[in-house]
Structure formats: C-alpha cells, structure tokens
Backbone:
C-alpha cells in the first residue's frame, strides 16, 4: 500500500497522492483512477466539489495563513 501524502498548495487545493478511498456523505466510495493524484477544493468555489476545478485562481483565493498575515499587517498599518 502506497503511503498517502497530502500537499497544501499555496493559495490552491489540497493535492492527495497515494492509495486513498474518497467517501461521499452517504458513505459510498467515489470512483477514482487508482494511483492518480487528486486535488481537493480548498476555496469552496469549485463547481466540481469536492474536486478542484481551478476557480481559486479566478477568485483570488488566498490560504488561511496568508489571509491572517495580510489582515494583521493591515491592522498594524491602521494603528
């Protein structure tokens, strides 16, 4: 069994590689191509959820860590 690796792409999706089973809300396994990596939506705007469709780049999504840093920097600038 191949170990599972989840890579958080900067301002993008979660990239999942390895032997995985993705289960829907009813507990049914979703069809995946064995051995093919998948990208899971992190921005919430994909029209192909739970998979990424690239919408994050069109809407200017920034990851939580970066968003917090930007917010904190703006807060300091206002002070």
Residues:
């Amino acid at each position: 069994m191949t170990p599972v690796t989840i890579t958080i792409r900067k301002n993008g999706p979660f990239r999942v590689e390895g032997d995985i089973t993705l289960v829907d809300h009813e507990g049914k396994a979703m069809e995946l191509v064995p051995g093919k990596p998948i990208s899971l939506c992190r921005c919430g705007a994909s029209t192909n959820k739970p998979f990424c469709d690239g919408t994050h780049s069109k809407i200017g999504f920034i990851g939580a860590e970066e968003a917090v840093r930007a917010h904190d920097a703006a807060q300091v600038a206002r002070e």
About this structure: The chain has a mean pLDDT of 91.
